[in-house]
Amino acid sequence: MIDVDIAVIGSGSGNSLLTDDLADRTFAMIEGGAVFGGTCLNVGCIPTKMFVHVAEIATAVREGGRLGVDATLQGVRYEDVRDRVFGRIDPIAAAGEAYRRDGDNVHLLRGRARFTGPLELAVEMRDGTTEHVRAGQVVIASGSHATWPEDLGAAAHREGITIHTSDTVMRLPERPRRMLVVGGGYIAMEMAHVFSAFGTEVVVSSRSGLLRHQDTDIAEAFTTAAREQWDVRTGTVVTDLHRSDEGISVTLSDGSVVVTDVVLAATGRRPSTQHMGLDLAGVEVHDDDRIVVDEHGRTTAAGVWSLGDASSPFQLKHVANHEARVVAHNLAHPQDLRSFTQSAVPAAVFTHPQIASVGLTEEQARAQGIDVTVKVQQYGDTAYGWAMEDTTSLCKVIADRRTGHLVGGHLIGPEASTLIQPLIQMMAFDQPVAEMVSGQYWIHPALTEVVENALLGLDLNPSEDLSESPPLA
Fold first, then answer.
1. Residue 262 carries which DSSP code?
2. What's the pLDDT score for residue 463?
3. What are the residue numbers of the active site?
């Protein structure tokens, strides 16, 4: 039995729990994955964006002609790109693991953890042995994993066909000539952009619309752009697949057949909380397998905490990092508990065109009874938009007319993930629109004028009596 003060399950954001405030505690760091460091570092945010940056350069070369730049893309050296990406990332993961292995107050256990009782764990190690851990506190930061429809998995298994996910598709031995992307969410759209820009023929099959959780104006604008880049088949699912002389033949629910070399399933991610014996620890879960936590990160079991994708409704690395900071503080200062902040949570989709959002969509704001005022600002109506000859990108802001405060912001176009930041700031610090837009300089003719002009276009009439204003969800 290994006795420690704190056991942490998961080496992604959970690795951030080992702070100076907890330097006098002993830890068990438990990681059951193939590599150390979690999803973001190894198979998620970081490698995908390193691929996306190359895809953006390739796309810019192809599109240069409309601006008078006659350039030819000779090709993207996929193997070189892949090796550069993971030549940077893999050593970081290895160094992180070595650092924890050498720590004086840390027991690094490379295996899968399951509860055997309150605050007791059995860790099935990769070498086949089992280690037992008893802890004063346990933090579940086990993250999430890619999933795909059971029918798709069964058909692929029958035919001996590999279904790729974001875990594996970036390490393909060579760039495929053809790819079927199954899904219409952010991972699907990012990978469609990457491989299409690299020269792969991409077909997208999505059960519903593309990026359907985005504001309707944004989703519609993106769908139009996507159809110009890829063969998009919305309202379809895979009904069968088998090997053929031409490759992998995939039958869709509309009766069409797609012949491809690689099938990428990007249909969602599920919290990695199964088979952990949570019931033996008294830890309750939601219907979607997320662990139930309160605003401080405490589960329903005394001494057990959770953070990140294992429990959060936001599968976002910046949210997991925030929650790790909160839980670390609470472990060190149990008499001064801090709470998770879940307002003004932004997200971006690094596809083409890029998308970023924060707060409510227009539909959500109206459903909450907010007296909505909306402004849609085209990039092309600003000076820098003229420079780019942009005709499709836009910034949409949504405010409460009576309070004068922003309730949502959405962008689609170049640098959307950067341009969203002033809108995040407004919402996070509860700044009135008038104060934000008029109380500072906005550089002319920078692209940020898109945001400035959108805010200036809102029809605001703050009321003196706000007692009856509906609360934001």
1. E
2. 66
3. 444
